[in-house]
Structure formats: structure tokens, C-alpha cells
Amino acid sequence: MMQDTPPDEVEPDEEGEPVRLTRRELLRAGALSAAGLAAAGGALALPVRGAGQGVLADTPAVGHPAHGDHDVVRGGHGSHADMMAVGELAPGGFDPTAFLTRFDGGKVSRLPSGQTLREYEMVASEVEIEVAPGVIFPAWAYNGQVPGPTIRCTEGDRVRVRFVNGSTHPHTIHFHGVHAAGMDGAFEMVQPGGQFTYEFDAEPFGLHLYHCHAVPLKRHIHKGLYGVFLVDPPQGRPPARELVMVMNGFDTNFDGKNEVYAVNTVAHHFQKHPIVVRVGETVRLYVVNITEFDLINSFHLHGNFFRSYRTGTDLERFELTDTVMLCQGERAVLEFTYRFPGPYLFHAHQSEFVELGWTGIFDVHGGADGA
Amino acid sequence: MARDAAPAAAKPARVGWRPWAAGLGPLLLLVALVAAFLRFGPVGVLRKPFPPVEELTIERIAFPHPGELRVRVVNGGPEPSTVAQVLVDDAVWRHELDGGRTIGRLDGRTITVPYPWVEGEPLTVTLVTATGLTFSAEVPVATETPAVGRRYLATFALLGVYAGVVPVFLGLLWLPFLRGLSRRWIDFFLSLTVGLLVFLGVEALAEALEVAGRVSAAFQGTALVLLGVAGTWLALAALGQRRAGKGGAHTPSDVAMLIALGIGLHNLGEGLAIGTSYATGEIALGTFLVVGFLIHNTTEGLGIVAPIARERTPLRRLLLLGALAGLPTVLGAWIGGFSYSPLWTTLFLAVGVGAIAQVVVQLWKLFAREPGGGLTSPLNTAGLLLGMAIMYATGLLVAG
């Protein structure tokens, strides 16, 4: 997947290609032929993108897999401990774990009609984010983070989002939901330095998303302009441990394919830092797929089955499964309860995505005696 | 300054420190200017906000034992580059570097990756730098890299003996046959030798340029070829001039030695190729391939003895000639088998080209000294073309 499609900005200045030796070449040369290359490997120099430069301190040379908060990954060859991004994130950056449970209800007030008003301020800017330890990605972000803040409201609330474009390209915010055409964020480009206020009533309830709808679409989305738009049903959902997971990917060399896959941006984060849940506790995942370039993504849970509420728009009907496939922009509310303690993987069921970062662990605590 | 220096140099009696100081002047200014740039940075216009082009070159991927691979990477870019992650076949993998993650310009690192590679299957290693760029190299066939030891030393030596030493000595056995020929026919075989050499030279030059393309750009592979070819050519010419005295022409025996040297250097390159391919599982040295090399390289021995057909040559000297031409194959097989670097390979090949070019010129001169004929007489032209044709045809034997 990391082959060398020329990126759209800069022409490759040099390209190596796999070298296969034939006896013909060997003799033809009579001297060192492509044979040497068999061992040497053709060097593949990919071009540079014309964007921000990551400034990175010299991280420790010897990288051992971090065992994370909980030493639940067993070592040894062929284990998941080997297939893992090396190193730790620079401190102070985006925290995928914190993002799981960070919901933004906005500034709440009441309209004369009695309707709840939630006001948000969103600023688009250009920031550098770390998508795997040591790998800096020049992102476009809402409020300086990728994914943007998780906007949460209740069906029927009035949502008012003042959007300021603090970047150098035109952007918009396109909310999924039912609203007037002028509030759709598809046609009114907000120019650099400009602003626009989106206002609509949140409906229908369910798990939605928002993203930039400026063109070129692929670029505006894969660079990070997206987030979760969660609309609760008026009566609410049953109590549960609620976690937001945004499936995303990053094309770090801008060749039109992702080099890094993750939930909540950072490769292998939840494998190094497992999510602790308790036996018997109901877990509700809000899973949104905004992966660019790849047609689909998926979520698979180990040692368990979950109730999958597609788009979260129905509280009654669900499918009981352990794998759900989501197209770009599709989402699902997943609910499950663990009966047995221990570490359980969750990951895309596309092995390629797993190996490039989209995998994590639920570390189920407690109940050992009872289970 | 130059005007001051010239007359001073013309009169050696008055040479003092002044002309040298004058020569150093521009150099000192250059040093001062570079220091100023390094200290204060270049004029603003030269700087751009985006990162400089990074250029990491993976020079070699070795498989020391099952479950581990070693990647040799060189930074040929203008700025230091930081290796942030390593992917093997598109999977992020644990790894260790033998130094800091940031690799300075023209510096290198060896990266050890505990990866369960599969014998006989291809594999791609990708380095992801801090800026998200990727640099990949593919190994067509993963196979355990030979460790220096008695077993592999012997294996590679045997390979070299088969491919280089045996055929050259076989070719030398044509000497009695050549002795029995008239001068006309000896000239024919000399022309044939020129044909062989031209073929080998062109082959080696093409190869040198090809490998040069894989040398990390900072090391300028093509320029290395030029240095190797021209340097060797000039060095051999100067050496020949000293030996030949005022005349400048070589004796037939010298020419034979030169031919042996040129072929030896060429065989060193051939040994490199064989050793590397064998070590990386790219060739199984089948019967057919051995036979091909035998036939192909036997003609080289003929080339060595053609100029000395009418000389009295002691056996010891003949053995020396054979060793000079054949043994480098063994050396090459060792180097190619145990360690490979595109940079050194380019240089070796270029040196071989320079030597062969020099040999061709000397042979030409040998002809020029003789009355009548020369390379353009019908018989000799036929020999020259036949020489190339033989190399081409026997080359087909080794083609797969």
C-alpha cells in the first residue's frame, strides 16, 4: 500500500523499483548485475510534500514496545508485541484515550420558546499532529485537534455553530442531519479569515458526523477536518460506559494511500494503552468511520458479541454480531458486556489496517471470582 | 593574483611563499564565506517553509537468522533525517537502531527488526520518517544471509573457481596451438581478443552505470564511474609509460599482463555478481549455469596468450597471468557474498572498464607497429567481429 503513486503536489525525483534478477542479467553484466540489488534492495525515494515540517527531538534509539498502562500484551515472537509502533507520543499532544469520553455540550441556554440552545465556536486551523510516535502529520483541524470535538446534543435542541476559518484554504462544516439547504455547509465556502454561523435543530437522533465539504474533498477530509455529531434521543439511552471511536487514516507521504490507520488518530494507541472496562459493565461505543481512500473499514470485537444499532437512529432494532462493516461516513452504536476478565482485542477486520495501527485492547477487570 | 603567480612559477629560482599564498587567498575567502553562511544562515530567499527533500537509501537488507532482519540505511539527503517507524510488508514493526533516530547527512544506521520473514518469499521494508515520508526497498527472495565462516568461504571460493579460474587456465592451454600458427593467423586471434575485450568493456560500463543509479544520490554514482574509468585508464597509461621507457609502446609481454589485469578486474565484478546472487538465493548454481560460465570465460584465457604467441614465456609467468585474470573472481564472490554496497560495486566495475579500455588501446598500438594489415585488414576485421560474436553467443548459455 505504500507503493509510489506520484503525489499530486510534487513529481517524484527518483524512483526505485523492485529488482528481480534473471540469469540473463547476471551474464549480460558479466559484472555486477542487478543481482547485487537483490541484497541491496533498490532504494525508493519518495518526494517530499510541500507542507509543514515536523520538528522532532531525537527519540531514544532503542525502541521497545511500550507495555502501556497495563501489561496485558504477552511477548514472544509472533506476538502482537512485535507488530507495534515503536516509541511514545510527545507529551502534551492529543490524547486518544481522553477523546473517548470527551463530549462537548456547547454553551447551553434556553430560547424564549423553551427550546434548548447549544452554542459552539469552531475554528479551522493548520496544525501538526503526531499520528504515530515520531511521525508528524501536517493536519487541518477543527479547534486544533483531529478528530474535532465531539458535539453532543439532544434531539430537538437548537444547535448554533459559529465557524471561523483561521487557515489559508477555504473550508466549511457540513453536518449530517436534517436542516435547511443554506445550513448544509456544502456550497457556502468560508474563505480564510472569514466566518459563518450554522444554525439548525438537531434531528434525527442518532450517531452522525460533521466534516469539511470544500474541494478537493479527499484532501480536506484526510487532512483531518471531521468530527462526531452525536444526537441523543429525547428520552436518552440506558446507562452505559460510553466511548467515542473515530476510525481514521493518514496519508503521511501524500501518495493517495494511508500509511497509518487508527481509531482516534494514533496508531496502536489502544494496544499500548488498553481501555479498562469491568466485567458486567455495559459498554456503548459510538463508532464513526471517516477513513479516506479506503472504501470500507470495520470493527471486530474479540471474545464477545455486540448489539449493533446502525446509525443509532432506532433504539429497538439491532443486529447481534461481532463484526460490523462501515462505508466511508457510515457509523454504528455498539453495545456489549464482558462476562470474563482479561485482555480482548478490538480491531478492523482488514488485516492491513490492523498492521498499520488500527487495533486496540479492552482490558476487562474484576469479576474473576464470580465469572 | 594569477598574474603574479605565473611568472613566479616560471622562474623556479625565485619561488618563495608568495605564489602559494596567492593561491590560498581565494580558498581562505571561501572558508570565511562558508563560515559566515553557517553562522548567519543564507540570504532569506533561499529558505522555504517546507521541509527539505529527504533522501534515505536502503543499501542492504540482510537476514542473519530466522526471525530477524537487518536494514542498512544511508542518508543521502541535504539535511538530517529522522526514522520514526519501520514497516515490514506494510505492518508497523518493532525495531532497534544502532544509534540515534536522527541520521546526519551521509551518515548511516543499521536497523534490526525482529520480523518472522518467510524463506523464499519477497519482502518489502519501508522506513517512515518524522515528516511522514516513506522510503522502501524490496527483497525479491528472502533467504538467510551467509555469515563469514569456513563453509561459506569455501562455497564462494568454489563458485569463483568454477566461473573464473578454471576457464581462464583452460584458455591459456591454447598457447601451443597459437605457437604453431603463422603470423597472419596470430593476428587474427589478436583481433579476436580485441573483440572480446570491447564486448566485456561495454558490458561492464553499462553495468557500472546501472548500479551507479542505485548509489545514494549524494555519492554521485555516475561521477564515480567517470573517476573509476578515467583514473584507471590514466594510471595504467602512466605505469606503462614508465615501464616502456621513451618509446611509450608496450612489449607483447606487458600487453599480456595488462590484458590479464583488465580481465581480472572484470572478473572481480563478475564474482561480485555471482556471490551476491547466490547469497540472496537468486541463483541456484545449476549445471547449465556452470557450463555456461566455463565456456564464456574460457575465451578470456585465449585473449591473454594471443599477444605472447611468439614470445618465450616461462611457465611461472603464464601461471601468474592466469592467476591475475582468474583469482579475482574468487575475491569478488567473497565480497559479493558477505557484504554488498552499490557504491563499491560501481567503483570496482568502473575500474574494470578503465583497465579494459587501456588494454584495447595497447593492443591497437601493437597492431600499428606491425607492417601491413592492422585491425582493418579483412581477416583481422573478421576476427574482431567474431570475438564479439563469440562473447554474445556464449553469453546466451548463461542467460536464464
Q: How do the strands and helices of this protein lay out in sequence?
A:
The complex is a heterodimer of chains A (371) and B (400).
Chain A: H1 23-29, H2 34-40, E1 44-45, H3 96-100, E2 103-104, E3 107-110, E4 116-132, E5 135-142, E6 150-154, E7 158-165, E8 174-175, E9 195-201, E10 206-211, H4 217-222, E11 226-232, E12 241-250, E13 260-263, H5 269-272, E14 275-278, E15 282-289, E16 296-301, E17 306-310, E18 319-321, E19 323-327, E20 331-337, E21 342-347, H6 351-355, E22 359-365
Parallel strand pairs in A: 2-6, 4-7, 6-11, 12-15, 14-22
Antiparallel strand pairs in A: 3-4, 4-5, 7-9, 8-10, 10-11, 12-13, 15-20, 16-19, 16-21, 17-18, 17-20, 21-22
Chain B: H1 2-10, H2 18-40, E1 56-65, E2 68-75, E3 81-88, E4 91-93, E5 96-97, E6 102-103, E7 108-113, E8 123-129, E9 134-139, H3 150-172, H4 175-179, H5 183-212, H6 221-244, H7 252-279, H8 287-305, H9 315-326, H10 328-338, H11 342-369, H12 378-398
Antiparallel strand pairs in B: 1-2, 2-7, 3-4, 3-6, 3-8, 5-7, 8-9
Helix pairs in contact in B: 1-2, 3-7, 3-8, 3-9, 3-10, 5-6, 5-8, 5-11, 5-12, 6-11, 7-8, 7-9, 7-10, 7-11, 8-9, 8-12
Account of the 3D structure:
- The complex is a heterodimer of chains A (371) and B (400).
- Chain A has one domain: Immunoglobulin-like (Sandwich).
- Chain A is built from 6 helices and 22 strands.
- Chain A has helices at residues 23-29, 34-40, 96-100, 217-222, 269-272, 351-355, and strands at residues 44-45, 103-104, 107-110, 116-132, 135-142, 150-154, 158-165, 174-175, 195-201, 206-211, 226-232, 241-250, 260-263, 275-278, 282-289, 296-301, 306-310, 319-321, 323-327, 331-337, 342-347, 359-365.
- A 6-stranded mixed beta sheet of chain A has the order 13-12-15-20-17-18. Chain A has a 5-stranded mixed beta sheet with strand order 2-6-11-10-8, with no helix packed on it.
- Chain B folds into 3 domains: 2-46; 56-139, Immunoglobulin-like; 150-398.
- The longest helix of chain B is centred in the middle third of the chain and has 30 residues, at 183-212.
- The model of chain B is unreliable at 1-10 (pLDDT under 50).
- In chain B, the strands form 2 sheets. In chain B, strands 3, 4, 6, 8 and 9 form a 5-stranded antiparallel beta sheet that branches. Chain B has a 4-stranded antiparallel beta sheet with strand order 1-2-7-5, with no helix packed on it.
- In chain B, 58% of the residues lie in helices and 13% in strands.
- Chain B is built from 12 helices and 9 strands.
- Chain B is α+β, with helices and mostly antiparallel strands.
- At the A-B interface, helix 1, helix 2, strand 1 and strand 5 of A face strand 1, strand 3, strand 4, strand 5 and strand 8 of B.
